[in-house]
Specification:
The protein is α/β, with parallel strands linked by helices. It has 13 helices and 28 strands. A six-stranded mixed β-sheet has the order 4-3-2-1-13-14, with helices on one face. The protein has a six-stranded mixed β-sheet with strand order 6-7-9-10-12-11, with helices on one face. Helix 9 crosses helix 13.
Length: 582
């Protein structure tokens, strides 16, 4: 579309960066001096963005850069936030982001934490990325209220076009915000409708929703709300090769971890108000060289992280790219809604490493898929082939922090009866069915079978909820072999029906907090106990300690995996079997 009445600009976008400062997948392969297959990295991103800006400057076309959230959490660089550093937002500010919507993982450590993070990054401030929280309600007299989030934002471009922005946290993403007690969320549909109207009233020519919600949610938003021209989608880490168009709304999603930079070249006709949009995805790969200034900043953050890592591991590891283990195959976190190779490795690590630390038998270990962040990929270059670095291992299980700011969710020692073990399994099968794959439970120390067609008893369409049957489980067997769980039948016995017997379970605090005093679903009322059968009032007191420090999931994984060949974990282990009753 070219005419006297046509103006052009470019919209660049990323989402779910998850502290991916350096090239990865796997990071051990990265070498700036030779060709490699790594992807991502903020220094490469800066190079691409600068190139596009310079090209568009020749034709006087403005360039905007936005993120749909979850820039924080998920790999070792995010740990620096617990030490008062803000690498993610500081780099995004330097790269020149215009708009960022806060995602659910920005709230992983609570509202006080993200408030302090934003304050250290210079907020509130008059320049730098505008932070959006269109449906976020912040309580009065709280630190986050002092920082403030924008309900909407209008950017007037140099060609006099006004681009209006909103950004919500979607309904599914809200389920995973568990510690942010000073905020709540309004209906995303009501909020969007309200502020789209506000943007129109304030003269916005084009409206862009930078939403931390997945494609399906955004299709629903576009279907019910008019006047949204573009939706940048996030949260689900999905990569859309081609846009989805619903109700004249252009929906795109660039994947996660800076694998791609999305680009929309937009033409707007002032008279007809028609848009013409050309979309492409730019791989952030080895072809793109690192920007020297951003690379220098990242190097400084890496040095800080390495110094801290040496302290965290009692001088056993002093470099995030140090080889820890080997494998001839990738260890995957897929398939969804199923036992996974990586789920088996992480739960085995939790069970066996906790056993060694406690010097007591640990019967079972549990972890949910949402806490398992990415596949483990060994090196592929001639000098790294088969090697797994600390970074590539720890980024799969490095979320959260402990009570003393040690990074990672701590592993707790709790006790349950057989009846409660069954309720836990039934409950998480149900929760994953209604809330998604992130709540599917991985296990160690047992195998069980269930009927996937018998999970839900009935639906409640009015409340958009369902009732669990609690009759999905067919059988539960305890592993009685030594060490790493096998799939040999002789190593299993049926779980005893003794009502008084307690089973010791290794479980992280994130999952443990799904057992509230109020029931989350019908009959989900299990009481985590100590070894004497007394209810645990404060879960923090059940945290396992190693050398006076909390044992975290990543420490268990690294400790178990160090100097080990993990190739056997490249396949499933027949721990979770789907089997119809009839």
């Amino acid at each position: 579309m070219t005419s006297q009445n046509t103006v052009n600009f470019t919209l660049l976008y990323t989402t779910d960066e998850h502290s991916s400062l350096i090239p990865h997948t796997p990071a051990i392969d990265f070498d700036p001096n030779q060709k490699d297959d790594t992807i991502g990295g903020f220094a490469r991103l800066q190079t691409i963005v600068s190139k596009i800006r310079n090209e568009k400057l020749k034709s006087k076309e403005p360039v905007l850069l936005v993120s749909a959230g979850d820039f924080l959490s998920g790999n070792p660089y995010s740990w620096l936030a617990t030490k008062g550093k803000t690498p993610e937002l500081s780099l995004m500010n330097k790269i020149g982001y215009d708009v960022i919507t806060l995602g659910n993982h920005e709230y992983d450590f609570g509202t006080d934490f993200i408030s302090n993070y934003l304050k250290l990054a210079g907020y509130p401030k008059d320049n730098g990325p505008v932070l959006l929280g269109t449906n976020t309600v912040i309580y009065d007299d709280t630190p986050l209220k002092e920082i403030g989030l924008n309900k909407y934002f209008i950017k007037e471009l140099t060609n006099n076009i006004k681009v209006g922005f909103i950004g919500i946290i979607g309904k599914e993403a809200q389920h995973y915000i568990r510690k942010a007690k000073d905020i709540t969320f309004n209906s995303h549909l009501t909020s969007i409708k309200k502020y789209v109207k506000t943007l129109k009233e304030n003269g916005a020519n084009i409206i862009v929703a930078v939403n931390h919600s997945g494609v399906n949610e955004n299709i629903n938003i576009a279907r019910y709300i008019d006047d949204i021209d573009i939706i940048i989608s996030g949260h689900t880490h999905k990569f859309l090769k081609h846009p989805t168009i619903t109700n004249n709304t252009f929906i795109v999603q660039p994947g996660s971890h800076l694998r791609h930079l999305g680009q929309l070249d937009i033409s707007y006709n002032i008279e007809s108000k028609e848009l013409s949009i050309y979309q492409k995805n730019i791989p952030i790969d080895d072809i793109i060289k690192e920007d020297p200034e951003i690379e220098s900043d990242i190097s400084n953050y890496t040095n800080l992280l390495n110094e801290w890592l040496e302290d965290l591991t009692n001088k056993k590891i002093n470099n995030i790219l140090e080889p820890i283990a080997i494998s001839n195959e990738n260890i995957k976190k897929t398939p969804t809604y199923s036992e996974t190779p990586l789920g088996n490795l992480i739960t085995d690590s939790m069970r066996i490493y906790a056993e060694d630390t406690l010097e007591k038998t640990v019967d079972f270990a549990f972890q949910v898929n949402g806490q398992i962040r990415d596949d483990i990929l060994p090196g592929t270059r001639e000098d790294t082939k088969g090697k797994i670095s600390f970074y590539d291992l720890a980024r799969t299980a490095g979320m959260g922090k402990t009570i003393n700011s040690t990074p990672g969710y701590p592993v707790a020692e709790v006790y349950f009866t057989k009846r409660e073990i069954k309720i836990i399994l039934e409950s998480f099968i149900f929760l994953s069915k209604v809330m998604g794959n992130p709540l599917f439970l991985q296990v160690s120390g047992m195998r069980y079978s269930y009927d996937p067609d018998n999970v839900i008893l009935s639906d409640l369409p009015i409340k958009n909820w369902a009732i669990p049957s609690f009759r999905a489980i067919n059988s539960i067997e305890k592993y009685v072999g030594e060490g790493v769980q096998t799939d040999n039948n002789k190593d299993f016995i049926e779980l005893k029906k003794d009502k008084k017997k307690l089973y010791r379970v290794a479980i992280d605090l994130y999952v443990l907090e799904f057992f509230p005093k109020k029931r989350l679903v019908s009959r989900l009322f299990v009481v985590p106990k100590d070894e004497h059968g007394n209810p645990i009032e404060d879960f923090k007191k059940s945290i396992i300690k190693e050398n006076y420090r909390p044992l975290t999931v990543w420490k268990a994984l690294v400790g178990f995996s160090k100097n080990r060949d993990l190739t056997s974990y490249s396949e499933d282990n027949k721990r979770i079997i789907t089997k119809n009753r009839n």
